[in-house]
Amino acid sequence: MSTHDDAILDEAAHWRSRDLAVLWHPCTQMREHPDTLPLLPVARAEGAWLVGHDGRRTLDAVSSWWVTLHGHAEPRIAEAIARQARTLEQVILAGCSHAPAVELAERLLAIAPREAGRPPLSKVFYADNGSAGIEVALKMAFHWFRNRGDEPRRTKFVALQNGYHGETIGALSVGDIPLYRRIYAPLLMQAVFAPSPDAYLARPGQSAEGCAEDAADALAHLLDAHAGEICALVLEPLVQCAGGMRMHHPAYLRRVRELCDVHGIFLIADEIAVGFGRTGTMFACEQAGIQPDLLCLSKGLTGGFLPLAAVLATQAIYDGFLDDSRERAFLHSHSYTGNPLACAAALASLEIFASDEVLARNRATAARMAELVRGIATLPHVAEARQTGMIVAFELAPGGDRRAAFDPARRVGLRAYRAALERGVLLRPLGDVLYWMPPYCIDDAQLALLADVTRAAIAEAVA
Ligand SMILES: *Cc1c(COP(=O)(O)O)cnc(C)c1O
To answer: Which of 213, 219, 428, 442 allows an S-S link to 194, with CB 3.0 to 4.6 Å?
Structure first.
């Protein structure tokens, strides 16, 4: 090996040790670094590739935690941010206005899900990450009833079992993933959890739609039992992502919409992960033909370049805060609310959806993914392979038995993660669920690599 190669190898090792000396990584048991879990230093990225200091490429099959949409370092978004940075990098959004915030709000409202006969979403409130967006929606729903004055008991939220809405205390309160939630339970506000419509939980012989109808019936009973106590229901439409990419039939969403109307409570759609084309349509709600009262967007909103969240609300919700009293106003704020750089990135991303016909191209990519899935679905220990648009998941279970699970001590998911990384693909399983949520630019050769490596990773993990 030449001294040049040595120097490059040293560079990765150098960054690893400097990193572990000072960084505390998110969602990580730090004791697992570096021995159980390798740390991947990334020098740069382009398209679907992450590139190491040694030039080695790793396919980003998880869109860097579901944020990267069109591809890493997309030049048009990079340019839009650079242009905006030289013009107006940030300004207080209370009392001030700027074009990127206005234009982005206009564009988002124009593409938001619509339902015939229902007044459209018509106002945009910005926050700076997904969890903050959820906090905004929860507080708005609660405060709206307070402002109306006649509902002093409406202090609760309904959420779904196995749902996920973020990590801040309010967002965690409506989440139902024990690993994230259990330890903080004493700090959390009350939420009422309804059974998940998750089609993986269907009884033998039951259809996904039948399973969704059962869950909706259970929700109906729950809402009756808590009549007058609830201000809103929050859910992830079509795919419970952090809960293991569990998918459900759109019939559930139609029933939820009806039930929320009957009970006079708000429907909050958390499309933070599934929005912007992930499920095949621009927004997942479209596939059920429903429109929520509050729509939370983040993650892919900026194409994956900068943190930003948008909460879209109906005129009726907005009007509930108009008053002479400041206390009736929605006084929530974040320092970087509506940051111009983030808004410019989001506008550039939406421009790409139009100019590159992204949704049409994704249909072809999703069809290609479906073909590749067939060769993996039949492997031993794959209990289910499922897909919604650009999201694919493989549920691993001993013998492929849906009612069984691997002993957590076997760390099947972690072994798959390591096996894939050694072969040049970044998969980051959720427990024993392996999934693909690639940047939309992924091409046929990259998909073929992804499928080959997934097969090998499953074989190694379950061996
Ligand atoms: C990631 C996620 C959030 C939280 O977003 P952050 O930006 O990570 O705070 C909320 N809801 C869903 C459905 C998510 O996937």
So the answer is: 219
Task: Quote the CA–CA distance of 214 and 227 in Å, as a whole number.
Answer: 20
Average pLDDT, integer, range 126-139: 98
Task: Please tell me the distance from the alpha carbon of residue 170 to that of residue 461, in angstroms, as a whole number.
Answer: 36
What are 425's strand-pairing partners?
A: 59
**Tokens representing 407?**
């002993």
Whether the pLDDT of residue 89 is over 80: the answer is yes
Backbone angles phi, psi at 147, to 5 degrees: -60, -35
The CA-based dihedral angle spanning residues 105, 99, 308, 295, taken in that order and rounded to the nearest 10 degrees: -10
Q: How confident is the model at residue 121 (pLDDT cuts 50, 70, 90)?
A: very high
Report the candidate in 63, 36, 16 with the shortest Cα–Cα distance to residue 436: 63
Q: Whose CA is nearest to atom 7 of ligand 1?
A: 130
Which has the closest alpha carbon to 279: 238, 249, 245? 238
Query: Does the beta carbon of 177 sit less than 6 angstroms from any atom of ligand 1?
Result: no
pLDDT tens profile 173-216:
999 999 999 999 999 998 999 999 999 999 999 999 999 999 99
Burial of 120 (0-12, 13-18, 19+ CB in 10 A): middle
Question: Which atom of ligand 1 is closest in space to residue 270's alpha carbon?
Answer: 13
| Reported pTM | 0.97
State how far the Cα of 28 lies from the Cα of 438, in Å rounded to an integer.
22
Residue nearest to atom 15 of ligand 1 (CA): 273
Which atom of ligand 1 is found nearest the CA of 242? 15
Q: What are phi and psi of 53, to 5 degrees?
A: -65, -25
Helix (H, G, I), strand (E, B) or coil at 448: helix
